[in-house]
Amino acid sequence: MASNTTLSNARILVVDDEPDLRTLYELTLLREGYRVETAGNLAEALQHLGERRFDVVITDMRLPDGLGLELIQQLRAQQRPERCVVITAYGSAENAVESLKTGAFDYLTKPVDLKQFRSVIASAVQDPAPRPTAVGRAGSPLPESSDAVLQRLVGESDSMRRVKERIVKVARSMAPVLVHGESGTGKELVARAIHANSHRTGSAWVAVNCSAIPESLLEAEFFGSKKGAYTGSTQDRVGFFQAASGGTLFLDEIGDLPLSMQSKLLRAIQERCIRPIGSSQEEPVDVRIISATHKDLSLEVLAGRFRQDLYYRLDVIEIEIAPLRERREDLPALCQTLLRRIAFEAGIPVPTLSKAGLEQLSQDPLPGNVRELENLLQRAVALSDGDELQLELTARQPLTQDASFLDSGPTPLDDDQTTIPSDLQSHLDTQERDILIQALRETGFNRTAAAARLGLSQRQMGYRIARLNIVTPHSGELSDESL
Ligand SMILES: Nc1ncnc2c1ncn2[C@@H]1O[C@H](COP(=O)(O)OP(=O)(O)OP(=O)(O)O)[C@@H](O)[C@H]1O
User: Which residues form a coiled coil (predicted)?
Assistant: First the structure.
């Protein structure tokens, strides 16, 4: 029986033309304590809906007099509050994605696994408002109020307002969201706001930086492993999917996931099951996936670096965050918030930024976006000796290319583009190393500034520096000559 009486009072409409299945769903739901009504086709369903309000409508996709999708469309058009769960035929990914795009809360694939069925319905009937008694799990922060997280997202430009509206709109469904924007634009903050505004807010939030995990460890990190699965594994290990169970899994830098892992992720999303390494058992998983990238994934698909089917699965709802240089009207509010945060952490009075300083900032391309702005202000606060902040903007060329230039074509360092390298990986590594070193030199070995110039996050920069074995003067081991 469902443990929460308010949830078990929920009223559910089941729409399916197969009497056996209808009865199976009905009995399963009645056993959970829900109030259930059934319909065998669209017309009957609409009749029930005309008579009363339901909490959840579960509908088969194919009905004798139309599609389950039409039911969702009608409910949305009438702005009805019912959450819809669609049951689609096995292998019809298009239908599942289409129903999520139309506004379904979630979908289930035939043959329906009853455990999964119960868990999806339990999610759908939950009160969307954050539950006051909910507590964060070990390893996940206590849930923040939905408003508090949205308010942390500073900016009232048209594009920021659209982002915030979209967050609220999509938060309540299970549909995967892809957040796209340059490095430092606030993709993780947006993903967190979606989680905080969803009914999953009391459950785990697990953020994973796909570019920071070595390829050989990815499968174990994502799906976990059983004791003895490999040398040295002395106990079962929980993967990201299990850790995020009931909550949200945020896959940052999804464009950097190697192809081999992309197919495993696709399978986990499609089947909603994972198999830990060393286990013979599949485990059902209930996670909402939000992914983020600074890359244009459609170009990555064309270049053969990203699986089209996975792209299609992840990009059900897209949220685009504009770079800071395209929403300069957000700069004053952002500076104010960031300065307040910096001053609070340093335990000092909030410094002021002069009009001239703000003007200076608004002329700067700020390729590292809000993160770069944050670092810049942090440096200014640390170096200031008076009330007014002195900004140190790095002299640089106006930004003419976005960060994806590293991946999408020859760079000026390609002096011999006609020769095909015999070892592509080491050729690319050498080029990447040269670019990184050049950026580090030109920024006085300031990793943050170099990362910002290259459109990389600090984590990505750190990972690349380690991978390519670059020793910077700050590491105190070798001098400039070693570069
Ligand atoms: N609109 C905003 N209002 C307030 N702070 C912001 C905003 N956007 C970004 N930030 C701050 O800027 C920093 C970078 O944000 P975040 O990590 O979310 O960016 P990102 O796009 O995920 O970066 P990356 O792609 O490099 O991982 C964080 O400290 C975040 O709090």
Answer: none
Asked whether 372 lines ligand 1 (CB < 6 A), one says no
- The radius of gyration of the chain from alpha carbons, rounded to an integer in Å, stands at 25
C-beta separation of 168 from 194 below 8 A: no
> Among 3.40.50.300, 1.10.1740.10, 3.40.50.2300, 3.30.420.40, what is the CATH number of 146-320?
3.40.50.300
CA torsion angle 144 147 150 154 (round to 10): -110
Alpha carbons 327 and 321: distance in angstroms, whole number: 10
> At which residue do the structure tokens 């996936």 appear?
289
CA of 178 to the centre of ligand 1 (A): 16
Question: Which amino acid makes up residue 120?
Answer: V
Please say whether the beta carbons of 300 and 406 come within 8 A.
Answer: no
State the CB neighbour count (10 A cutoff) for residue 155: 22
Q: Measured at the alpha carbon of residue 213, what is the angle toward residues 211 and 218, in degrees to the nearest 5? A: 115
Question: Do the bridges between strand 56-60 and strand 35-39 make them parallel or antiparallel, or are there none, so unpaired?
Answer: unpaired
The answer to whether 294 and 183 are in contact (CB under 8 A) is yes
CATH superfamily placement of domain 419-482:
Homeodomain-like (1.10.10.60)
Among protein residues, the one whose CA lies closest to atom 16 of ligand 1: 186
**Global pTM value:** 0.69
Render pLDDT for 33-89 as a digit per residue (tens, 0 to 9). Answer: 899 999 999 999 999 999 989 999 999 999 999 999 999 998 888 888 899 999 988
Does ligand 1 come within 6 angstroms of the Cβ of 252? yes
CA 425 to chain centroid, in Å, comes to 29
> Helices (DSSP H) in 272-316: which residue ranges?
297-302, 308-314
Ligand 1 in contact with 293 (CB < 6 A)? no
